[in-house]
Design brief:
Order of helices and strands: HHHHHHHHHHHEEH
Number of helices: 12
Strand content: under 5%
Strand order of the largest sheet: 1-2
Largest sheet: 2 strands, antiparallel
Radius of gyration: 20 Å
Shape: globular
Number of strands: 2
């Protein structure tokens, strides 16, 4: 029963305060460890084959190390006082979630667009996406914002909660390490296609189930918000697999269908133009309001998921399976 309250408290804490900049975030430590390991590997390994094998050190050391350190910290807090362990678990799980952070980032773009400040909206979008944003028109700024919010519903909310449900803060933090690895070394470019292969594959595996759960949750949120549920289901069936990621297409296509817009298209990365398959039929033109509606879908879908996890955690404790977490 305690696990249910911990999940609910962690989600609520993130919704209220997010990630204050004055509090050191665990991802910063993960990033430094990843950078150190990458530099160490590159000093000692030069062949493509060697880099491919050395890439397994990232999940082996970073992910398992994160799990072990989190577990040890909670054990230490428990020995000091059980209440400290509970508080520590809540805070640690909250740091793996970014509901407020996504909301704030999206609303920053939205507010600039509503005020007619396109340059500022481009700049705000550039803080949360990898594509070049300096020359984007308003519909493309909206598209970029909707895409990054919808895709990150998986990475920044549903997946961390999913793993927290399975294994508490240690497993949630291990997932965050997986996701951080993917964002730092999991690229398919010339620099990381060998060294980052293991990290990218592990991220794909970790998000496989949560991504599909997210699509279902987005259908439910679309129904609650009076959006196009059937079109969302149809779009996922037709377009989700077109996405270059095996998981990213599910939340994006679900949102695109529910909103009646089309995501995907041409993006520019460091001056190089690339095409991403279209998802959805453009029944409506891209408008700033679609950003706000996507944020509402994020809030509703994540709230539904937390409610489900709380009920499952409660049922699990009643059935005598509390030892799982």
């Amino acid at each position: 029963m305690m696990g249910a309250w911990i999940l609910l408290a962690a989600y609520t804490l993130d919704r209220i305060i997010g990630d204050p900049r004055w509090i050191p975030h665990p991802v910063i430590a993960m990033g430094k460890a990843i950078t150190w390991l990458e530099n160490t590997i590159r000093k000692n390994v030069t062949s493509d084959r060697g880099l491919r094998y050395a890439g397994f050190l990232f999940p082996l050391l970073i992910v398992t190390g994160t799990f072990a350190l989190t577990w040890a910290l909670l054990k230490l807090l428990f020995y000091i006082h059980p209440v400290l362990a509970i508080v520590g678990e809540i805070v640690l799980i909250a740091t793996t979630i970014a509901t407020k952070g996504l909301r704030d980032a999206g609303m920053e773009v939205y507010k600039h667009l509503r005020a007619g400040r396109l340059p500022e909206a481009r700049q705000a979008l550039g803080m949360i996406v990898g594509r070049d944003t300096k020359l984007l028109d308003q519909p493309e700024v909206v598209r970029g914002t909707v895409e990054t919010i919808s895709e990150n519903i998986v990475d920044a909310i549903i997946s961390p909660l999913f793993f927290a449900f399975l294994g508490g803060a240690p497993l949630a933090m291990a997932y965050r390490a997986v996701n951080t690895l993917d964002s730092m070394v999991g690229y398919k470019n010339e620099k990381y296609k060998f060294l980052g292969m293991a990290s990218a594959r592990l991220d794909d595996i970790a998000n496989f189930i949560p991504a599909r759960i997210t699509a279902l949750l987005l259908f439910a949120s679309a129904w609650i918000l009076g959006l196009h549920v059937k079109n969302g289901v149809r779009t996922v069936q037709q377009d989700a697999r077109k996405h270059p990621s095996p998981n990213g297409g599910y939340p994006e296509s679900a949102v695109a269908g529910a909103l009646g817009i089309r995501l995907g298209g041409y993006n520019v990365y460091h001056g190089v133009r690339s095409f991403r398959a279209y998802m959805g039929v453009p029944y409506h033109d891209m408008e700033a309001e679609h950003i706000r509606t996507t944020i509402m879908m994020m809030y509703v879908s994540s709230s539904i998921f937390v409610a489900i996890l709380v009920l499952l955690t409660w049922a699990r404790s009643i059935a005598g399976f509390g030892w799982l977490w």
